[in-house]
Amino acid sequence: MELFARFDMLTEKINEMNREAVASSLPYLRLHEYTHYCDLKTFFHNYTRPLRLKREESDALFLFIWKDTLNLRGVIGEMDFYLFTFRYFKSMLYRTGNLDTPDDCVEKLDLDLFIPYKEAREREWLGRADAEDLALLERSVQLMLHPEK
To answer: How confident is the model at residue 120, as a pLDDT?
Structure first.
């Protein structure tokens, strides 16, 4: 059987299961959201593992990033969601170790950059963001969308 035919069968089966879940009020997740979850989990693990966060902190941070990236889907336009997720993290990292040799350096989520972004985003969600918060959010999103600028 052709690979794409298998993908089509899988997609149809997942859509059927989602329709059944909606009809029976079971929780459900669309396939592209699950793929995004897997991508996000991988990036999150890679960039936060060196920080040695407590389990509760890690869970809360992951939940925020999950919600934030899903909310930003409308902003990214035609950009691939995986690429956007990659850039989301890359815009908030710092490197330690021997920076001249990629094998000897470690990339970590820069909490000095990320926490102000997170707090500004949460204030925006609550409707309490001021002009400074909105400017920070706009700069951050533009950096995620256009890292070369």
So the answer is: 96
* Angle ∠(6,8,12) on CA atoms, nearest 5: 115
Range of the domain at 69: 30-145
How many Å apart are CA 10 and CA 35, to the nearest integer?
13
Q: Quick one: what percent of the chain has pLDDT higher than 90?
A: 40
pLDDT at residue 57, as a whole number: 93
Number of domains into which the chain is organized: 1
Q: For residue 28, give every residue at least 6 positions away whose Cβ sits within 8 Å of its Cβ, in sequence order, or none.
A: 17, 18, 21, 22
E strand or H helix at 93, and its extent? strand 93-97
Tell me, yes or no, whether 54 lies in a domain.
Answer: yes
Q: What is the DSSP letter of 46?
A: H
Q: Tens of pLDDT along 15-71?
A: 887 787 777 766 666 667 778 888 999 999 989 988 888 999 999 999 999 999 989
Q: Taking phi first (over 0 means left), then psi (-120 to 50 degrees means alpha), and beta for anything else, what does residue 77 get?
A: left
Residue that has been written with the tokens 């009809």 in this structure: 23
DSSP 136: H
Residue 4 domain flag: no
